[in-house]
Amino acid sequence: MKQLRIFIILGVISVLSACNSSSGPQSGPAPIHEESKVVFADPEPPLKEEGMVWIPGGEFIMGSNEADAYDAEKPAVNVAVRGFWIDETEVTNAQFEEFVKATGYLTVAERPIDWEELKKQLPPGTPKLDDSALLPGSLVFSPPARPVPLTDISQWWIWTIGADWRHPEGPQSNLKGKEDHPVVHIAFEDAEAYAKWAGKRLPSEFEWEFAARGGVNGQRFAWGDELTPEGKYLANTFQGNFPNRNEGGDGFIGTSPAKAFPANSFGLYDMIGNVWELTSDWYDALKLARLAGHAPKLDAGMNPCYNPNNPYAMERVIKGGSFLCAPNYCVNYRPSARQGHAFDSGTSNVGFRLVKDPVDKKLGLNQ
Q: Suppose 351 and one of 37, 182, 305, 345 were both cysteines; which one would form an S-S bond, judging by CB atoms 3.0 to 4.6 Å apart?
């Protein structure tokens, strides 16, 4: 059964193994490029959007030139985005429940796994899984009792039958007391279905990072260059020895309420930490290098994705890190951090927030 579980893990989640990179950031030096203000455009439209914040758009520096940043974040490039509205928080369990009650929607984690689709993301010749392993479920973080090798993600990610957005830790769990926590176990198509119902859309990777930076270029974190300025925790991350010992210094072991930590300068909560957030972009590990002219253009007609660590997977970009990002393993609680996540599955640490275009489509730099 362990072998079956590992096969499923390989097929439905790749972001987890990508965290343990030899070229990742540690505490490290200050950013190489100087801190500077973003050049803004697009004044706020007269019509307000409830629960959303206006991001004026403009030009900013995306990515990182830090020597110890992950390769997928390099190099820093100049990017322009048009103005947009964005949810002030991640979509919560209560909000998602409203959608399900109104539509009767069934998430991917609540449906049996389609082997024909799953095997497309596995090496050729992978034997078919037993039907018992294809029952509805999702991946749940389950910390081991002792330190384990960080190269074996099956030591802490467990395929759990019956895990879904209503049962985030498995069939015996529920959402009592977590109504204002971000919804998890959400696949890309689930987020898109919610977005269509809400009259919104998923953000592009460019939009997401622009919003996370809060109007300032060159800062390591969304709030400055120190992870815990004056000893204050400003995001829900992992303190201790990952994966077996989370000391909970920030007050939380798992997800936290949507407004448990201060908002960034745009008024957005949890752009860093708590749960990873889905974007609309396919994942390309060399995206920034291609934008900078350091790598050839991706032949999107053959495959819109490129991930040398997981060549068979179809992945979307996720941003922001989660409550599982730790200094000894996955330092992704930074605006520039980016990873790929299997488009057809969710986990207990991935959620989403949405954006909306202004009514006046003439606004913006990219016309």
A: 182
